[in-house]
Structure formats: structure tokens, C-alpha cells
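TASK: fixed-backbone design
INPUT:
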């Protein structure tokens, strides 16, 4: 991403790379990908640019509408490649003095993964990032689609998706463990509250290797501050991996007038020929 530090700049870097690859390999028209399309209903400044500080939109039920393509705020320049990342990507507990409240085994595993600089992450084998790691990767944004009864989160990375049911159902009892768990949502004023459980113990909470067990449960509190800005608080409870309940926060910015790209992962060498 070079020295690019804004959502528009990050998107431009990503679009430029993808357009170059598409032009050379697939010859797919850029216009067919909706990477630059003026979305109806977007508030605009006199010069036509999206007004990201306009009031947050409201759904038919009067609640804030979280729908849109979102990307985590970049606040750290990586010393390795000079790309702008979120400081939470490699350590979701970055703001906590002393870090996450690990149980001894979890701390030892985290330290091992830290020394390895995150090598061996599930994503290397095309397996999903966990929550919230899947929301913290810049240049691979996520899209919220808010509907009555269910809110859907689409992750560009690996074309993964997540359902947050708002139809009153409870969390399932003793479910088959899943990478992204099982989620139900409700509103606390203008804050969307997501409760999740039923995770497997394979996903990492961040790209730096923060572990958890199948006993993990999470609470996410999402609040759209205005048209272009959203904040989230993540609370983790896992008595097997942590000695106490703890929380972390992250900020997100809307990527206006664009959409997700198809993104696949194959950890096998592709020859371009059918097997």
C-alpha cells in the first residue's frame, strides 16, 4: 500500500493492482466490477464527493443502518513493507497495559506465535480469520447488509460470510464449533449488540496469534457515528484461555461508491490446467 493512509488511497492502491492483473490476465472490463460507482442515496458535498460526516442513515424501523463497505482505520506504518495497517491487526489487546489476561498455556502459545511473526496462521492454508481478525485487515474490507430479521456480514477475503440473526432466536445450545461462531443481534439504543458463541479453537483473534478455546463467547457493540465512521467494542470471555473478561476497541471508515471484489485462496500451486 506504500505510504497510503486514507481509505480512498488504500482503495486506489488495491484497485490499481487488481485492474493491472485483470487487464493482463483476464481482460475483464473494470466497469463490470462496480469498483467506482456513485451509489444512490449517498450524501454528497457540492463538488460531488461523498459527505462522510453527514448524519448516519436510518433503517425503516428508525434504527441506524450499518449497511455499507467498511475498512478498519489504518494507524500504523509497518516497518517491514511500509504499508499502513491497524495496530490491532497483530495485537487486538494493543491498548491494554500488560496485554490480554492470558491463562499460562495461552500466554506461552501467544509468545511462540509472536516470535514466529504470525507465521503459521490459519489464513496461510486459506482458512478463515476469526472474529475480530476478519474485520481488521486493510485492503480486504467487509460489507454489512442490514435486513429485518438478519444482518449479513460479507468478507472480501476468501468470500467468507457471517449471519447475525435479529429475529429473536437464542444462541444454539452445544452447536457444531464453527470458525466464525453463531451470532444473534439486538439494539441497545443506537448501538448494535452482537452476541456470539460456538467457536472452534482453531481461529486466531488477531493476525499476531492471540489464541482462544471453544469456550469463547464474544459481545460486539457497533455504533455508526455518522455516515462514514463506525466504532466497535469487542468483549471476550473465555475462562479456559483468559483469567478475566476483557475488551478492545477499533474504528472503521466507510469506503463509498465501491463494492467488494471476488477473492479466492488456493494454497496449492495453480498451473492453469484442470487436474
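OUTPUT:
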Amino acid at each position: 500500500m506504500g505510504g497510503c493512509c486514507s481509505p480512498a488511497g488504500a482503495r486506489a492502491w488495491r484497485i490499481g493492482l487488481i485492474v493491472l492483473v485483470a487487464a493482463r490476465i483476464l481482460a475483464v472490463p473494470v466497469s463490470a466490477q462496480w469498483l467506482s460507482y456513485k451509489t444512490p442515496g449517498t450524501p454528497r458535498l457540492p463538488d460531488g464527493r461523498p459527505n462522510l460526516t453527514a448524519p448516519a442513515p436510518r433503517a425503516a424501523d428508525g434504527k441506524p443502518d450499518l449497511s455499507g463497505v467498511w475498512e478498519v482505520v489504518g494507524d500504523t506504518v509497518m516497518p517491514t513493507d511500509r504499508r499502513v495497517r491497524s495496530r490491532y491487526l497483530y495485537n487486538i489487546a494493543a491498548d491494554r497495559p500488560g496485554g490480554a489476561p492470558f491463562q499460562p498455556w495461552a500466554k506461552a502459545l501467544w509468545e511462540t506465535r509472536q516470535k514466529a511473526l504470525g507465521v503459521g496462521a490459519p489464513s496461510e492454508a486459506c482458512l478463515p480469520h476469526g472474529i475480530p481478525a476478519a474485520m481488521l485487515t486493510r485492503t480486504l474490507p467487509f460489507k454489512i447488509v442490514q435486513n429485518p430479521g438478519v444482518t449479513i456480514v460479507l468478507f472480501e477475503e476468501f468470500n467468507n460470510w457471517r449471519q447475525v440473526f435479529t429475529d429473536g432466536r437464542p444462541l444454539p445450545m452445544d452447536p457444531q464449533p464453527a470458525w466464525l461462531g453463531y451470532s444473534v443481534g439486538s439494539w441497545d439504543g443506537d448501538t448494535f449488540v452482537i452476541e456470539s458463541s460456538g467457536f472452534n479453537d482453531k481461529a486466531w483473534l488477531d493476525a499476531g496469534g492471540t489464541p482462544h478455546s471453544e469456550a469463547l463467547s464474544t459481545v460486539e457493540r457497533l455504533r455508526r457515528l455518522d455516515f462514514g465512521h463506525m466504532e466497535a467494542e469487542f468483549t471476550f470471555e473465555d475462562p479456559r484461555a483468559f483469567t478475566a473478561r476483557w475488551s478492545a476497541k477499533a474504528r472503521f471508515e466507510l469506503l463509498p461508491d465501491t463494492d467488494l471484489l471476488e477473492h479466492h485462496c488456493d494454497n496449492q500451486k495453480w498451473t492453469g490446467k484442470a487436474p
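COMMENT: Helices lie at 7-26, 104-115.
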